[in-house]
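Subject: Interface between my chains keeps coming out wrong

I've been trying for a while to get a sensible model of this assembly. When I model each chain on its own everything looks fine, but I need the whole thing in one frame so I can look at the contacts. Pasting all components below, labels as-is. Any help appreciated, I'm running out of ideas.
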Amino acid sequence: MDVTPEVRQELTEWLYHEAELLDGRRFEEWLALLADDLTYEMPVRLTREAGGGEEVAREMAFFRDDRETLRLRVARLRTEFAWAEDPPSRTRHFVANVRVRPTDRPDEVEVRSYLLVYRSRGDAPQAELLSGERRDRFRRVGGTWKLCRREFVPDQATLGLRNLALFI
Amino acid sequence: MAVTAVPLSAGLRQRLSAIRPEEGVIPAFIFSDPEVYRAEMDTIFARCWLFVAHESEVPAPGDYVTRAMGEHPVIVARGEDGRIRVMLNVCRHRGMRICRADLGNASHFRCPYHGFTYTNTGDLIGIPYQREIYGEAIDRSRFGLIQARTDSYAGLVFATWDADAPPLREYLGPMTWYLDLLAGRAAMEVVGPPHRHEMAANWKLPAENFASDAYHTLHTHASTAEIGLTPSPRWAKDGYHVQAGNGHGVMVGTPAPRFIFAEALLPTFARHLRPEQLALLRTLANMPGTVFPNFSFLISAVSFKGRFVSHTGLYQWQPLGPERIEVFSWFLVERDAPPEWKALSREAFIFTFGPSGVFSQDDSENWTNITRNSRGPLARHLSFLYEMGKGARPTRAFPGPGEVYEGKYSEVNARAFYRRWLDLVQGDGPWT
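Reply #2:
Try treating it as a single job with all components included. I did that and got this:
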C-alpha cells in the first residue's frame, strides 16, 4: 500500500484516538479496534556491552497476548476485585515520532512510534514512567484500520512500575 | 569474607522486644524501620545463603550474569573449568563496577577506570604499567575479586559471604525435598532473562506471602475465578504448610483436579524423583514457598486458552532500602517438555505471575500499601495479626519432611519465618 499523506494522517489520528480510549479507561472500545489475529508483545530489554549481542530478549516477555487474553485482562479490570487498578491510576499515553512504512502486503502498513506512559497513582506525586518504541502493523479492513501486530520495546531493563496493570 | 555486624542500638533492641513471633505478634515497624534494615543487611544478607541464578543461565564456559547479594553487586560466571563462581563486582583498586552488562560471555573483565583486568575466575592478571608504577612490590594474588562461597542445589545457584555458614545442603535442610519437586523433577531450564521491576515495598512482605499466605488468594485474587482462570476463589485452600527449618517455608497445595504437568514427562519425573515425591507430584495443585531470606518460588496451575496448564516461577525480592525492592521473576520449565506445552506454560506464566500478571498485579498493590502503613510512632506497637493456626498440631500423614500442618489457610509458616528472622537480627548465634 502506498503511504500517502492521508494514510499517515489516518494512522497518526488512530494512535491518538487509541491513547484517548486507554487513558479514558474505555477498554471495550479499544478492543474493538484490534484485529482478530492480533499479536501483542512486550519483550524484555537488556543491558549489553556495546557490540555484545541482542539487547531485546524475545524468549521472555512482559506481555505475550492476543485479542482473547487482552479481552480477559479487560474483563478482570471490570470485576470488583482488580485491586491493582481500583482506585484507578491516571495515565497519559504520549505518542510521538510516528513513522509509517509500506509492507510487502497490499492491505498492511508498518507504523513505528515512540510511547511514553505517565502513570499517577493514589496521592503519590511521583509518576511511574514507561517509555519505549511501538512497532505496529495495521491492516485496512472495510475502510478502517485494525491493529494486527504490536511489539512494544521498552527502554528500561528494570521497569520502574510496581506492576503492568495497564496497556501499552 | 568476614562481616562484622554493627551492634544494635538500645532503641532498636527495645523495639525488637515487642516482637513475639510464636504468639503471632508482629509489629508494623519492621517493614519500614531503617535501623531494622541496616541490621538485616549485616545479620541476614551478609550471612545467609542467597539465590543468585539458575545454572541454565550460564550454560557455557565464559557465560556470566550480573546479580546482587543483598545490596552488593556480583558477577555469576562459569569458568573454563565448568565451575560457577560468584564474585563481588567491585574492582579491588578503586571500587568501580567492573562488569556493567546484565549478561554475556567473557574470558576476562577489564575495569573501565584504570584498566585492572581479571579473569572470569576472579584472578587479577593485568595492571597497566604494573612494573613501572608498583615495581615488584605488589602481589597480584592478594587482589583478586572477592569471592563468595558458592554451591547449587537442583540447578539453583546460591552464594554466601559467611565462611561459617553451614554447607548449602545443610542450610536448606528439609527444603531440599521440595526443591526436588520444584527444580529437580526433570532437567530444567530458565527461558530468557528474568523480568525485573521495582516497587516501594519491604522485602519481607512478598517473602512471607510466598512462604505462608494462601489465605490472601481468597480475596486478593478473587478476580481470577471470575474470569475462569481458577475454579473458585477458594481454589488454594486445601493442602499443607511445611516449616522446613531456618525460616524456610513451603505450602503444598493438594489434591489437584487433574495432573498439572506435561503427561509426556511422567517417565522423566519417575526417574528424577523418589516414589513418594512422584506420588505427591501426581496430585500437586500448586506449591508456593520461600527459601529464607528472599528467594521464593511458585508452581501454579490455571485454566488458560481452553487448557489446564501449570507453570513454575522463581522470584527474588532484592532489598534496595527499607521500603524498596527490585523484583526478579524467572520462568523455569522442563527442558524436554513438548514445545507446544512449553509455549503455553510460558504464556500462562506471563499472563498470571510476571509484572503484568493478573495475580501479581494485585499483590504489588498490597505490599506497597502495607509498607507505607508501617511508618510512624504507632507502628512500634501496632501489631499485625499472625495468629491463624495457632495451637495447631503437626501432622504425620504427609510424605515429605519438615514440620507439616494440615490446611493452607494458616500462618504457621509466617511465625516460623519471623522467629528465624528475629533470631538473626538479634544476633543470637545464626548457625547454632
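Reply #3:
Confirming on my end. Chain B has twelve helices and 21 strands.
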